[in-house]
Specification:
Elements: H1 22-38, H2 56-61, E1 67-71, E2 76-79, E3 86-90, E4 93-101, E5 109-111, E6 117-120, E7 129-137, E8 143-152, E9 157-159, E10 161-164, E11 170-171, E12 177-181, H3 188-193, E13 195-200, E14 206-210, E15 214-218, E16 228-234, E17 239-241, E18 244-246, E19 249-256, E20 260-265, E21 270-275, E22 278-284, E23 297-300, E24 303-311, E25 322-331, E26 338-342, E27 360-363, H4 374-380, E28 387-391, H5 411-414
Parallel strand pairs: 2-8, 9-18, 11-19, 20-28, 26-27
Antiparallel strand pairs: 1-3, 3-6, 4-7, 5-6, 7-8, 10-12, 12-15, 13-16, 14-15, 16-19, 17-18, 20-21, 21-22, 23-28, 24-25, 25-26
Length: about 425
């Protein structure tokens, strides 16, 4: 033993003497293990000893090749409510696209069959901020995402639809959904697509345009009693005519009550009231005089007035009459056809002569105070939407758009 300290890798164990034999061999083995686990540069690593990314490791750490593009660009404003929003993917397929307004209301859309594009299924609302989140996946399963926001235009000119019947009402089996727009519509397809009418139990409901400012919806036959009808007006943002946008987003519902269909026979001068398939009353009436006959056809009660004024000048009869207290009046047409009480004709007129200016008259008293009068009974037992059919009058059939009377148009014509 020479008593000198050991140098090199074992220099840290000063004061120990060099040994030989089995113990020395064991020490060498331990030193090799320490070096292999945490020592100098590895054969397959870089000069700092870090392992290289090879094979599968390189694929897992690489960026996705899929590229997501959203139009309009992030932060855009005054964006059109139709045709501007589109999401596309290159070198990959879209897996998720969500679009929602600032309240979280989602925009329904659809990814194309090949996965390369997404478009909304309807127009967007005006003056609204939207957030887009889209994800695409490349052929190796790696995902890439895009998040943007944009704001739609603020329209200078707008329109709404005035609708009937009222929300929460109970109406007769003949009641259509009728919407009158405040501006003439030149893009009826877009407007009609923004309105949804559904029934429970389900039945096919179709719309029909009368001119460019009225759209009615009805089933092929009268509604079934008890049906619940829901109307969704998603007009906010729809361009009804160039530069004119809807500003209405509303949901209303109404219920169909019992079935009541009353048939006026102008020849026999009677009215048969049938409820749920059974006649409950047969009332003597007076219809239009030979020179002022009553329209034939199916008519729907659209308004009810216990007492109202009727002035012939408002319906083309000049000064022939002006009655300030017509009792129990129910409107059947826009042009002035009513079924109403009549106190000025003698009692024996009803059932025997037609003397009116085109309306259907029932015996009544002035002031509408006597509930036993035929007109009072019919008024009290009728609701908006009930059907009154006039037949055997020497007049033409009423036009479908004269009142809520689309039932006079064949279904084949209605759905064109």
């Amino acid at each position: 033993m020479n008593g000198q300290p050991i140098s090199g890798a074992s220099a840290g164990v000063r004061g120990r003497v060099r040994r030989s034999g089995p113990l020395a061999a064991l020490a060498g083995t331990l030193l090799l293990l320490v070096t292999a686990c945490g020592g100098g540069a590895a054969a397959d690593g870089d000069k700092n000893g870090a392992p290289e990314a090879k094979g599968k490791g390189q694929v897992e750490n690489a960026a996705s090749q899929a590229v997501v593009t959203v139009a309009p660009k992030d932060g855009a404003d005054s964006v059109a409510t139709s045709g501007a929003l589109k999401v596309t993917a290159e070198k990959g397929k879209l897996t998720t696209v969500t679009v929602a307004d600032s309240k979280g209301t989602p925009v329904e859309g659809k990814i194309s069959a090949d996965g390369t594009s997404w478009e909304p299924l309807r127009h967007l609302a005006a003056a609204t901020k939207y957030k887009v989140h889209a994800v695409a996946k490349d052929s190796a399963g790696r995902e890439s995402a895009k998040d943007t926001t944009f704001t739609t235009l603020v329209p200078k000119n707008t329109f709404i639809g005035h609708y009937t019947p009222e929300d929460g009402s109970t109406v007769g089996v003949g009641m259509p959904v009728s919407i009158n727009f405040t501006r003439g519509i030149t893009n009826p397809e877009a407007v009609e697509a923004a309105i949804k009418v559904t029934a429970e139990p389900a039945v096919r409901v179709e719309g029909h345009w009368f001119g460019n400012d009225r759209l009615d919806f009805r089933p092929e036959q009268y509604w079934k009693p008890g049906t619940k009808v829901t109307v969704e007006l998603n007009l906010d943002g729809v361009e009804g005519r160039p530069g004119v946008y809807g500003k209405q987003a509303k949901k209303v519902s109404f219920t169909i009550g019992r079935s009541q269909v009353s048939t006026v026979d102008a020849g026999a001068k009677t009215m048969s009231v049938v409820r749920d398939g059974k006649e409950i009353k047969n009332i003597p009436i007076t219809a239009g005089a030979p020179s002022t006959t009553t329209y034939n056809g199916q008519m729907v009660i659209s308004e009810k007035y216990k007492v109202t004024r009727m002035n012939g000048a408002t319906v083309g009869f000049g000064g022939e009459y002006d009655i300030k207290d017509v009792p129990h009046a129910m409107r059947l047409s826009t042009s002035g056809t009513f079924v109403h009480g009549n106190y000025w004709a003698s009692a024996d007129t009803f059932g025997s002569a037609n003397v009116s200016h085109g309306c259907v008259g029932l015996r009544d008293v002035r002031g509408a105070y006597d509930g036993d009068m035929p007109a009072a009974w019919f008024y009290n037992n009728s609701i908006i939407g009930d059907v009154v059919i006039v037949k055997n009058s020497k007049d033409k059939q009423i036009q479908p758009d004269n009142g809520l009377n689309g039932w006079n148009m064949p279904w084949s014509e209605w759905i064109k």
